Amino acid sequence: MATKPTKPRSGAAKPAKSKAAAAQPAKAAKGKAAAAAAAPETPALDLPTLRTRIDGIDQHIQQLIAERAQYANQVGKAKGKLAAAVDYYRPEREAQVLRRVVDRNDGPLQDEVLVRLFREIMSACLAQQEPLKIGFLGPEGTHSQQAVFKHFGHSIHGLPLGSIEEVFQEVEAGNADFGVVPVENSTQGTIQSTLDMFLTSKLKICGEVELRIHQHLLSRSGRIEDIERVYSHPQSFAQCKAWLREYLPKAEKIAVASNAEAARRARNADDAAAIAGASAGNVYGLKNVAGPIEDRPDNTTRFLVIGRELFTPSGNDRTSLLIFIKDQPGALYNVLSPFAKRGLSMNRIESRPGHTGRWQYAFFVDIGGHVLEDAMREALAELDELAHEVKVLGSYPVAIA
């Protein structure tokens, strides 16, 4: 079986410590050792006692979750009779709860583990009213579906759709409460089809998800020597091109609409394979030939959560704007200066043809802050006089863990 070669990683040399500085940790360690020796030893608990205590903790956790669910139900009733599940969902409130989870965490579990646990609890509590309907680029097993579960938990009703355009259409029509679409990859850049949809869509960005992407080579037989063709999404081919060049240089590479579609096709023949996530292999009964095979260890995709309305500030937010500039010298500098003057940081800028005329461009800009905060409101008021058109795509909580 092919494996990804291990690459040496270099790191900056650490500065040498002075003798006095080096002696301090040793002195502290010696003091702690002496204190430990003086303290009476705590007898180790036997296995039955440990299991009994864990059972007691489990019972208490379950009681607290039930109590939380009851209070969540009361919150729903306090809001009155609302039209649908989407009316009960508040992403800014969830973001605040999860940030407190991270702030309280002293280990041993990692932040992302606790965030995932609390997301599932909140997802289940919200579903007491009615599960949210979330559209995503399907079929089942895509990275977009993983992003849905990471952001909304598993107590939702997922709607796998055939294209990014369909995700926008289903949310606009009200058939989905929210949609999740990829917008950029850390190694391959922007997903242009997503940005282009915002040029005409009235939907708003309600959240963002950052998902670490691991690519695997999957096939029915599990043998690399059988593979003559590989299916995958063009972005995934680009993320794995060095690995493919080394291990499958002669295999035919066939681009498809999604990695899950690639896995679905690969299950039909022993000489076919797919590049996809491990979850797609589980869904379509494929064996792992090799992986992870992405060329960069930090390969990450950012997804956007799209909905039909803006939400209130969470305390750590990002605003996405679509700016059509006037054709004049210094136009881009002029439209960015209102934010710089007020200490608002620009996180990202991307230009696209504006579809308003030949050689006319629109700029997608991400700014730290929320449109309902004073500094952002003042900057946008000044920007209205400098730009040809400004469209607020959304103000939403910054991604958490």
TrEMBL record:
Q: Mind telling me which SMART domains this protein's record contains? A: CM_2
Q: Where is the composition biased (Low complexity)?
A: 12-40
Span of domain ACT? 320-397
PROSITE patterns for this protein? ACT, CHORISMATE_MUT_2, PREPHENATE_DEHYDR_1, PREPHENATE_DEHYDR_3
Predominant location category: cytoplasm
Cite the Gene3D superfamilies for this sequence. 3.30.70.260, Chorismate mutase (1.20.59.10), Periplasmic binding protein-like II (3.40.190.10)
UniProt keyword terms in alphabetical order: Amino-acid biosynthesis, Aromatic amino acid biosynthesis, Cytoplasm, Isomerase, Lyase, Multifunctional enzyme, Phenylalanine biosynthesis
Record-annotated Prephenate dehydratase domain positions: 133-308
**Where is the Chorismate mutase domain positioned along the sequence?**
41-133
Intracellular or extracellular location(s): Cytoplasm
SUPFAM superfamilies, sorted: ACT-like, Chorismate mutase II, Periplasmic binding protein-like II
Q: Give the region (Disordered) as residue ranges.
A: 1-40
Q: What does the record give under GO molecular function?
A: chorismate mutase activity; prephenate dehydratase activity
Query: What's an example Gene Ontology biological process for this entry?
Result: chorismate metabolic process
Superkingdom of origin: Bacteria
Q: Which Pfam families match?
A: ACT, CM_2, PDT
EC number of the protein: 4.2.1.51, 5.4.99.5
**GO CC annotations?**
cytoplasm
Under the heading InterPro entries, the entry gives: ACT-like_dom_sf (IPR045865), ACT_dom (IPR002912), Chor_mutase/pphenate_deHydtase (IPR008242), Chorismate_II_sf (IPR036263), CM_dom_sf (IPR036979), CM_II_prokaryot (IPR002701), G/b/e-P-prot_chorismate_mutase (IPR010957), Preph_deHydtase (IPR001086)
| Pathway participation | Amino-acid biosynthesis; L-phenylalanine biosynthesis; phenylpyruvate from prephenate: step 1/1; Metabolic intermediate biosynthesis; prephenate biosynthesis; prephenate from chorismate: step 1/1
Catalyzed reactions per annotation:
chorismate = prephenate; prephenate + H(+) = 3-phenylpyruvate + CO2 + H2O
Functional summary from the UniProt entry: Catalyzes the Claisen rearrangement of chorismate to prephenate and the decarboxylation/dehydration of prephenate to phenylpyruvate.
Q: Which PANTHER family match?
A: PREPHENATE DEHYDRATASE P PROTEIN (PTHR21022), PREPHENATE DEHYDRATASE-RELATED (PTHR21022:SF19)
Q: What is this protein called?
A: Bifunctional chorismate mutase/prephenate dehydratase
Q: Which organism is it from?
A: Lysobacter silvisoli
